[in-house]
Design brief:
single chain, about 375 residues, alpha/beta, TIM Barrel, 8-stranded parallel beta sheet, two-stranded antiparallel sheet, 14 helices, about 10% strand, FMN binding, (S)-2-hydroxy-acid oxidase activity, (S)-2-hydroxy-acid oxidase, FMN_HAD
Length: about 375
């Protein structure tokens, strides 16, 4: 019997042991040299704390509000694909764990359980992530099904006009299963002699012509709020405001698209300053500790999205593993808040951290 993990990183080790190499490489790998993959994690480690002492932290409160929904912590589950590769119950197990923790789950369009199966598995707040396809009717149908099934927002991924070069998947000739969400709409069975069939599917279906003017079309097919995921610059944050999105996720796609983009935590503040509080800003990428969540909140994020750790928890211990990943991160965040002198989320300020940019000024 394996020992109980005491932190999120230990779930990755268990997942590596539990999964076939092809699937572990798919979940863990990044694009090309994987520079950004490493930087997503390491950039958090270069941010230091400036804790306050003699603050009453006998009671702490992690609760917040996300798009009008009250949740007990600023932790959400990011959209990640094909959970049945990690565990036979797939996204249904992930959804049950999220619901047990009262945590918002963003379901991937590439889920191995259908939109409806996940919605009927348990009560919970869920968003749905989607791309815009060359065949717009596919996007429209998926969005309509999500809305009818009670999903509360649409998360539009905007950083993938084409799929990034994921060399582990190419070497392994990654084979993706048939995706039930697309049954009756399009076949996801693609053969390729050059490597990953997932890349072949994406190249054949993603709409590389998608531009800012098309956000109006996405808004026209749903009454749900639209969050765009994949913003890394001030310029794109301003454009997002201009087209009227309901929220922004600062994301580099888990370092799986364009390598040598900056770590998301490194550009979070730039996006937050551009938005000026008009819509919520979220962030994903590289979050492995409650201390990381605190740092993101101090730089202006309203909440964080957790991707790979959730899949690792699922692979290692199923629904229970996902629940433990969420609980560990929340417990670590609560302790970090107490040790930093912040009894509530609103007490966390920019002055509680020190980035590399701050250090010369602080040393004068």
């Amino acid at each position: 019997m394996s020992k109980e993990p005491v932190n999120v990183n230990e779930f990755q080790d268990l997942a590596r042991q539990a999964l076939p190499k092809m699937y572990y490489d798919y979940y863990s790998g990044g694009a090309e040299d994987q520079h950004t993959l490493k930087e997503n994690v390491e950039a958090f480690q270069r941010i230091l704390f400036r804790p306050r002492v003699l603050v009453d932290v006998s009671r702490t409160n992690l609760s917040t509000n996300i798009l009008g929904y009250s949740v007990p912590s600023p932790v959400m589950i990011a959209p990640t694909a094909m959970h049945k590769l990690a565990h036979y119950e797939g996204e249904v197990a992930t959804a049950r764990a999220a619901a047990a923790c009262n945590t918002i789950m963003v379901l991937s369009y590439m889920s191995t359980c259908t939109v409806e199966e996940v919605a009927s598995s348990c009560n919970g707040i869920r968003f749905f992530q989607v791309y815009v396809y060359k065949r717009r009717d596919i996007t429209a149908q998926l969005v309509l099904r999500a809305e009818r099934s009670g999903y509360k927002a649409i998360v539009l991924t905007v950083d993938a006009p084409r799929l990034g070069r994921r060399e582990h998947d190419i070497k392994n000739k990654m084979i993706a299963p048939q995706l039930k969400n697309f049954e009756g709409l399009i076949s996801t069975k693609v053969t390729s002699d050059e490597g990953s069939n997932l890349q072949a599917f994406a190249d054949g279906t993603f709409d590389a012509s998608l531009s800012w003017k098309d956000i109006d079309w996405v808004k026209s097919i749903t009454t749900l709020p639209i969050i765009i995921k994949g913003v890394l610059t001030r310029e794109d944050a301003i454009k997002a405001m201009e087209v009227g999105v309901a929220g922004i996720v600062v994301s580099n796609h888990g370092a799986r698209q364009l390598d040598y983009t900056p770590a998301t935590i490194s550009v979070l503040e730039e996006v937050v300053q551009a938005v000026k509080g008009r819509v919520p800003v979220f962030v994903d990428g590289g979050i492995r500790r409650g201390t990381d969540i605190f740092k993101a909140l101090a730089l202006g994020a309203q909440a964080v999205l957790i991707g790979r750790p959730v899949v690792y928890g699922l692979a290692a211990k199923g629904e229970y593993g996902v629940r433990r990943v969420i609980e560990l991160l929340k417990d670590e965040l609560e302790l970090t808040m107490a040790l930093s002198g912040c009894p509530r989320l609103k007490d966390i300020t920019r002055n509680h951290i020190m980035t590399e940019r701050d250090r010369p000024r602080c040393m004068l």
